[in-house]
Amino acid sequence: MNIKTVFVCMNILVASIFILVDGPIHAKDGNNLRIVTIGSAVSEVVCALDFCDSIVASDVSSLYPESLLKKPRVGYFRKVSPEGVLSVKPDIIMTTDAIEPKSALDIFTSAKVPVIQLPSLKNVANTILTIEKISKYLNVLEKGKRLSDGIQKELQIMGEKIKNIKRKPTVLFIYSRGPGKLHVAGLKTAAAELIVLSGGTPAISEFTGFKPITKEAVIAANPDIILMTDKGYERLGERSISAIPGAPMTKAGSTKSLVKMDDLLLLGFGPRLGKAVNELYAKIHNK
C-alpha cells in the first residue's frame, strides 16, 4: 500500500464529524481504487478524469455517463444509505455538502473510510474547485487542469459572444416535481447562473434559492421565456405552458416561449458546463 492520505482535520459539520482528505490518494495501481460518488456532478468529474471504472457505487442522481447506470445505487444524495455505501467496501467516498442525512458522515467516520466533501456545484468557481480537488486526490492534476482550462475557454468565448447582445431576454426557470408541485428559481441557483452565462437575465431577483410558484409572482416576473428541465416538463401533466399558473398572462405565454433542457446538463454544473451554456444560448436566442 502506498496511499498518501493525510487527515488534515476532523471537522464538525452540522453536528457530524467526518474525515476530510487532502493530498493524493492514488492507491494500489490506481485502477483498483474503490470510489463511491454521491452527487451527479461529482460522478461526472470522476468519469471525465478517466476513473469511471473505479466507481463501485453511486447515488441515483448519477445518470451520466450511461456506464454509471450499471453501478450499484446507494440512494439519493439527499437520502443516502450509509449501510449501502459501506457494503461495497470503498477506499474513498466523494460527495458534496448537500449530502443527507448528515449522520451518514458519523457512520463513515466510525468505519474509518475517508470522505472528500466538495461544495455544491451552483457556479463556475465551485465547478473549477471541484475538478481541482478531485484531480488532486486522484493524482491526475495535469488532466484536471486540461479539463478546467477547456471549460473556461468555452465560457470565455461565450462571454465575448454575449457582450454584443443588445437585449438579454428575461428567463424564468420553473422546477416541477409534478402537477401542482412547481417552484420558481431566484438568484444563487444553478439555473440563474446558467441563464446569466448564456446571455439571459433571471426573471426573478427578489430572493435567492427556490420558492413555491404563485400565479401573481409569475405574472409580475413577466418573463420572455420560461425554462424547464425535460423531466420537469414531463411532470407537468398537461404538457403545455398553459399548465403553469400565471404563464398565459406573460410575454412567454403569449408567444408560447417555453424551452427545456436535459436535467443534468442544465443543473449539473459539471464537466459539461461549456456544452450547457452553448445549448441554452442557442435556445434562448434562437440561434
Q: What features would you describe in this structure?
A:
The chain is an alpha/beta fold and 287 residues long. It has eleven helices and 14 strands. It has helices spanning 40-48, 82-87, 103-110, 124-137, 141-162, 190-197, 215-221, 230-234, 251-255, 263-267, 273-284; strands at residues 6-13, 16-22, 35-37, 55-58, 75-76, 79-80, 92-96, 115-118, 170-176, 182-185, 201-202, 210-212, 225-229, 258-261. Strand 5 and strand 6 form a beta hairpin. The longest helix has 22 residues, at 141-162. The protein is globular, with a radius of gyration of 20 Å.
Rg for CA atoms: 20 Å
**Helicity level, as a percent range?**
25-40%
- CATH-assigned homologous superfamily of the largest domain: Nitrogenase molybdenum iron protein domain
Q: How many domain regions? A: 2
- As a percent range, the share of strand residues is 15-25%
Low-confidence stretches: 1-19
